[in-house]
Amino acid sequence: MKRAVLGACFAGASCAVPNSDLQNGLFAATPLSGEARVAVSFSPRVEARFGSPIDLEIQLRNDGDATAMVPGPHGQWLTPEIQDAAGRAVICHKRPQNFMPILKKLEPGQSLAATVDLSAWCTFPRPGEYRATFRYETRGQRMTPVTGTGATVVVLIAGS
User: Fold this and answer.
1) pLDDT, tens digit, for every residue of 95-120?
2) Which domains, from first to last, does the chain contain?
3) Nearest residue to 155 (alpha-carbon basis) of 80, 20, 23, 52
4) Which of 144, 36, 129, 54 is nearest to 87 (CA)?
5) Whether this model's pTM surpasses 0.85
6) What is the pLDDT of residues 16-67, one digit of tens each?
7) CA 106 to chain CA centroid, nearest Å
């Protein structure tokens, strides 16, 4: 998916993403009130130069047949667990604070997507391959709760 599309989706435009794109990542759906079901998916693999932004794509998709009210995808709702190839944990700081979610209508079949920079709140000590698992969970008044988990491989390439 291209950044321009992600930016437009995050800015509030309605976005349709083919099911084949969702099948490239792991996601889980939680049954919601009525017939709305919101799935969460993550980039299955992220590559970046060591010391550069590490952009993880998060996508929410309403697979139900009723409207859901969801906050736009954001790191506030993300809990990462990241390990290097030797099994050592990567330190991730607290999630962004002072975040006011803007609720968006997610009609059946529609998607919202955004990119979160993992390097902004996780300290990757060296180039290499990392295994990451994520839990994405929203809670709040007047919003449809969304819970999902997924896994990603993060590859940091040495270079100038």
Assistant:
1) 655 555 678 899 999 998 888 899 98
2) 3-157 (2.60.40)
3) 52
4) 129
5) no
6) 333 333 344 433 344 434 668 899 999 999 999 999 999 999 999 999 999 9
7) 16
Which ranges constitute the DSSP H helices of 1-150?
Answer: 3-10, 19-22
- Residue whose C-alpha is closest to residue 127's, from 157, 83, 84: 157
In whole angstroms, give the CA distance from residue 26 to residue 81.
Answer: 15
Which class for 61: exposed (0-12), middle (13-18), buried (19 or more C-beta within 10 A)? buried
State the amino acid at position 159 in one-letter form. Answer: G
Q: Can you list the pairs that 148-151 forms with residues at least 24 positions away whose Cβ atoms lie under 8 Å?
A: 148/27, 148/28, 148/29, 148/30, 148/39, 148/40, 148/41, 149/26, 149/28, 149/40, 150/25, 150/26, 150/27, 150/28, 150/40, 150/41, 150/42, 151/26, 151/42, 151/44
Residue type, 121: W
Closest CA to 25 of 1, 53, 54: 1
| Per-residue tokens: 145 | 């709760």
- Identify the sign of the CA torsion 67, 77, 145, 18: positive
